[in-house]
Specification:
It is a single chain. The chain has helices at 7-17, 34-42, 45-56, 74-88, 151-155, 178-192, 215-226, 266-281, 302-306, 337-356; strands at 93-101, 111-120, 127-133, 201-207, 231-237, 254-258, 286-290, 312-317, 373-374, 381-384, 393-400, 408-412, 417-420, 428-435, 445-446. It is α/β, with parallel strands linked by helices and 461 residues long. The strands form three sheets. The chain has an eight-stranded mixed beta sheet with strand order 1-2-4-3-5-8-6-7, with helices on both faces. A four-stranded antiparallel beta sheet has the order 12-11-14-15. β11 (393-400) and β12 (408-412) form a beta hairpin. The longest helix has 20 residues, at 337-356. The structure holds zinc ion. Zinc ion is lined by residues 133, 176-177, 210, 238-239, 300.
Length: 461
């Protein structure tokens, strides 16, 4: 993919002296911000491992499992997660996000669904989410204490809907999704103890109800949308802790990031952003961008965010082992904690960068009456955008209309327009990001050409 030259450094020079400085010989700051390097360096493989082992020790964390025991089931697990968040830092606002559910689909009885939320307030209310689901499932009930053991395999259909389903059967969920839960908790610690104040408010959530249909995340996202709370990004992590695939292939050097299209959706913009930042801060790790919502026929909680147009992606390990998912074999022994730590570092770098940056500039007018992109004198690209609070400059990107990655960019100062003579808006895609004084850059908002609306042809009777 295209690599971008010196985003931070160029931004600093340009912000100070506008465009001409970009061509001068004066030294620029390095690409990497030491503060983000420190976040990345703070990720602890040992803590990730200890968290996964503890989560698996609850036996099951099924959303419909026991909530009274202090040692087994989802109730004990969530109280432990809550207490861990509380122990990390007084800066974290920790809460149970409770939702009383009626029976629906795989939720076969009334249940109180509880997400665990830790909020690190920033300078603004817009939110950057880092998430994983702490609930687990074992639909075949392979545990010896399950009277319906093996029934799912024999009779087909949805085992979770059957009355004999044992929700207390062993479902340790070390990787699915103890890995994403541990990553979320570790980043809460890393960010809350960093001493940094972020522009965005960081929200660390471990979801419940994922295995019954992404219910905990959806219940939360519905309320976010209703309250019109701005969401800059959701980094969702689900099955990110094993480097050994069921096919015997080992890959500890790459991670897959899935994002819903089309190609200039906010979700793809977030995916490209993560790939770019990871190249700077975790260069030994390869980001494999996947131009689809998720793996074939499978899903996770990021879709509850994309449902409301909140930019969201899901991280997936390079090569899964399906024999260790949704059963009693999903144990810590099947994991690679060095690999999980690498994936946590990618999340830390990208979430840190985006949370330090301003909000992305606006590129649409209310009602869409005045286009923010036009042909200028007839053959130019004339771009406009609205100011982002905290920005001292803007970087305009463009690429061939058939290309997937940005190819060219230009930094401009504190203005809200740019004219590129003789660059055809018909042949290129354009986008714009906001840059602050420290060179941190927002997501790129792309100017998308709307699909043509066709009218049916009226025939004479
Ligand atoms: Zn999962």
């Amino acid at each position: 993919m295209i690599r971008f030259a010196c985003v931070r450094g160029a931004a600093l020079v340009g912000a100070a002296a506008l465009v001409p400085a970009l061509t001068s010989a004066q030294p620029s700051r390095p690409d990497a911000d030491p503060r983000i390097e420190a976040l990345v360096a703070s990720v602890s493989q040992e803590r990730l491992q200890a968290t996964v082992i503890k989560l698996a020790s609850f036996g099951t964390r099924s959303t419909l499992s026991d909530t009274v025991s202090t040692t087994r089931g989802i109730g004990a697990a969530r109280r432990w997660i809550f207490d861990e968040f509380r122990r990390m830092s007084p800066k974290l606002q920790v809460a149970f996000d409770r939702h009383l559910l009626a029976p629906q689909g795989r939720i076969t009885r009334e249940v109180e669904l509880v997400n665990v939320v830790a909020i690190l307030p920033g300078k603004t209310d817009r939110r950057v989410y880092i998430t994983g689901h702490y609930d687990t499932v074992n639909p075949r009930g392979n545990a010896p204490n399950n009277p319906g053991a093996g029934a799912g395999a024999r009779t087909g259909g949805d085992a979770q809907m059957r009355p004999e389903m044992d929700h207390n059967a062993d479902a340790p969920g070390a990787n699915d999704d103890g890995s994403g839960t541990a990553l979320t908790m570790e980043l809460a610690r890393v960010f809350a103890t960093s001493g940094l104040t972020f522009d965005a408010t960081l929200v660390f959530v471990t979801w419940a109800g994922e295995e019954q249909g992404l219910i905990g995340a959806m219940a939360h996202a519905q309320l976010l949308a209703a309250a019109k709370i701005p969401v800059t990004a959701n980094f969702n992590n689900d099955i990110v802790g094993s480097s050994l695939g069921g096919n015997g292939i080992i890959d500890a050097e790459s991670v897959r990031i899935y994002s819903l299209g089309p190609e200039d959706s906010p979700h793809r913009s977030l995916a490209r952003y993560i790939a770019r930042v990871a190249g700077t801060y975790v260069p030994s790790h390869t980001i494999r961008l996947m131009a689809r919502e998720d793996r074939f026929g499978r899903g996770s909680d990021h879709s509850s965010f994309t449902a409301f147009d909140f930019p969201a992606v899901v991280f997936r390990e390079a090569n899964e082992n399906y024999q260790r998912q949704h059963n009693a074999e999903d144990k810590p022994e099947g994991m690679d904690f060095r690999y999980l730590a690498q994936n946590a570092r990618v999340n830390a770098a990208a979430a840190g960068s985006i949370a330090l940056a301003p909000a992305a500039p606006g590129i649409s007018t209310p009602g869409g009456t005045a286009p923010m992109i036009s042909r200028g004198s007839g053959y130019d690209a004339a771009l406009q955008w609205t100011r982002s609070a905290g920005a001292v400059g803007y970087r305009v990107y463009w690429r061939n209309a058939w290309s997937n990655d940005w190819e060219r960019s230009r930094l401009v100062g504190d203005t809200t327009r740019l004219l590129l003579p003789n660059v055809s808006i018909d042949d290129y895609v354009f986008g714009v990001a906001a840059v602050n004084a420290e060179g941190h850059e927002s997501l790129i908002n792309a100017y998308v050409s709307p699909n043509r609306r066709m009218s049916p042809v009226v025939r004479r009777p």
